[in-house]
Amino acid sequence: xxxxxVLRLNEQGVRVVGIARRGNKLEELxxxxxxxxxxxxxxxDLSSNIEELPDFVKFLAEKYGKFSGYVHAxxxxxxxxxxxFDYADALKDFNTNLFSAVMLTKGISIKKCRQDKLNIVxxxxxxxxxxxxxALTYGMSKAALxxxxxxxAQELGSQKVRLNSVMxxxxxxxxxxxxxxxxxxxxxxxxxQNNVFHEICKPEDIxxxxxxxxxxxxxxxxxxxxxxDGGETLG
Amino acid sequence: xxxxxxxxxxxxxxQIEEDVNxxxxxxxxxxxxxxxxxxxxxxxxxxxxxKLTAQDIKSCMTVxxxxxxxxxxxxx
Lengths: 235, 76
Hints:
By secondary structure, chain A is α/β, with parallel strands linked by helices. Chain A is 46% helix and 16% strand. Chain A has helices spanning 2-11, 23-32, 53-64, 87-108, 127-130, 136-156, 174-182, 187-194, 203-214; strands spanning 16-20, 39-43, 67-72, 114-123, 161-168, 225-228. In chain A, strand 3, helix 4 (87-108) and strand 4 (114-123) form a beta-alpha-beta unit. In chain A, helix 1 (2-11) crosses helix 9, helix 3 (53-64) crosses helix 4 and helix 4 packs parallel to helix 6 (136-156). With 76 residues, chain B is mainly α. In chain B, 25% of the residues are buried. The interface between A and B is medium-sized, with 15 and 20 residues.
């Protein structure tokens, strides 16, 4: 979904700095950009050295200019039923899904790193509400991410920072693909049965909502975790 | 990790309370369900660096079949 969001922003001619673990994926993304000269990237693992992230944002702002938006699309789902639950593993996943988002937000909300108005969008998940057996850490981290949205939107609102999240249902991504492989049933097929359109959500469908939340057209939306799941959770 | 150690991890993670050996039928274990299969995949990934799929587990009938999936990765 991060990738789809970058491509949508790039189509609009917006300058974007992509952050990811692997340089080859970022290089591929750059090649797919319509305006590849407007896409920059840095490699950074967001599962460790979290305390350094505000300084990392300062470095980025000095190198590329002040930011007007930030999308947190980093997320990992490592299946871990309770029998194999491990604190150190969970902490690492929390770093990627939650703490890196908070610390990057801490960095980017500083005046010298951002423009007068700043729009932040986190990619959460309906798992924050529904949970999934075998995905305890994932669900907990996304529920906490939702609360970061609610709390920080109140703290930062008066400083012209808007903060919201998108909660997708099942989306056709590499992560869903891997999840599919470890489940005894076909996860994406189940998602297809459960939503009202009986289709599988594409990353672009989520990226469109991210674009809206990054734009001034959504100005009056603040501190919301918005379900975008084709009715999957309507029951 | 040795095969015997992996068996210990398996018993512990799936929270099996009966006595098991390589000949134990998975279907005879109360604890063996779809979530246990996810647990086993996570064990292979964590301790042996093996990325297996639910299909690999589906073909297993006994505890020995499960252990056999990691045959190339065990320490002597």
